Amino acid sequence: MIDTRKAAVIGCGFVGASIAFSLMQRSLFSELVLLDINKEKAVGEAMDLSDGLPYTASMDIHAGSYEELADCSLVILTAGANQRPGESRLDLIGKNTAILKSIIPNLTAHGFEGILMVVSNPVDVLTYAAWRLSGLPANRVIGSGTVLDTARLKQLLGQRLGVDSRNVHAFIIGEHGDSELAVWSGANVSGIDLEHFCALRGRRHDRAALDQLYRSVRDSAYEIIARKGATYYGIAMAAARIAECIVKDEQSVLPVSVVLQGEYGLDGLSLSLPSLLGKNGLETILEIPLDPGEQQALRASAKQLHGILPSLGLP
């Protein structure tokens, strides 16, 4: 039986530990299980996090085993090799697919029936692989997708326009990586068309300016990794936001990585697309309007990922 107040994080590196910290602060669960190939690392992280419990809600945080995950409502997978300076996310495919193949059987062997969220990169490829390897329904296997990229876009647009980024509504979709695209055709600020809002604020609105902003979003991870070696706070907030949508059955829209089965005319892969999230995980993939250039860019992103999947040796 699923315990809706129990979750787990597999992988206690910078990303996994930061996600656990973010989940603890949001008080979404009453029990959080941490797993890592280095058991002592998981124990240490659980101890460190537990020291802060007197300043948040009551919660049991401990290192555990795969057996303990059978009744988890949500398992967040962060295990894998980190992206290094000069590497793309796709460069991690071989190493992280092999790690995924060692983890998923341990998870499913104990009857896990909750929702699996993949955060490890390349997240779209690994989300699809996790679905194929686990045998779970497609609605219960999602990836963190471009939720972080979209947050970066909203933040930079907010800065540029001099408006609270929470009032900016725009998406990054496609691959969480170099072929991702910004959906400028639907971007708005509290319902006001982006071009009109720029005019109201006396800001320049042209293709060159938008392309520069898009490149800043796309390349943000490379810049952060070059400066500090890894990214983890932003993705931790993004993963916790996804978890919150599920736990609270919010029916909120986020661009998570989802298994496509005909949506947007695509199937046989996962891409990051606006989706309705609730207690069942993925509720609906939303086919939002795209202009011809965006449609072409999405197909190109899908084609790049499609070409990779046959080499993964998936069942």
What does this protein look like?
It is a single chain. By secondary structure, this protein is α/β, with parallel strands linked by helices. It folds into 2 domains: 3-143, NAD(P)-binding Rossmann-like Domain (Rossmann fold); 147-312, L-2-Hydroxyisocaproate Dehydrogenase, Chain A, domain 2. 40% of the residues lie in helices and 21% in strands. The chain is built from 10 helices and 14 strands. Strands 3-2-1-4-5-6 form a 6-stranded parallel β-sheet, sandwiched between helices. Strand 12 and strand 13 form a beta hairpin. Helix 1 packs across helix 9 (233-247) and helix 5 (147-161) packs across helix 7 (207-218). The longest helix has 16 residues, at 93-108. The two termini are 28 Å apart. The mean pLDDT is 94.
Sum up the structure in keywords.
globular, 14 strands, 3-stranded antiparallel beta sheet, Rossmann fold, L-2-Hydroxyisocaproate Dehydrogenase, Chain A, domain 2, alpha/beta, 2 domains, 315 residues, 10 helices
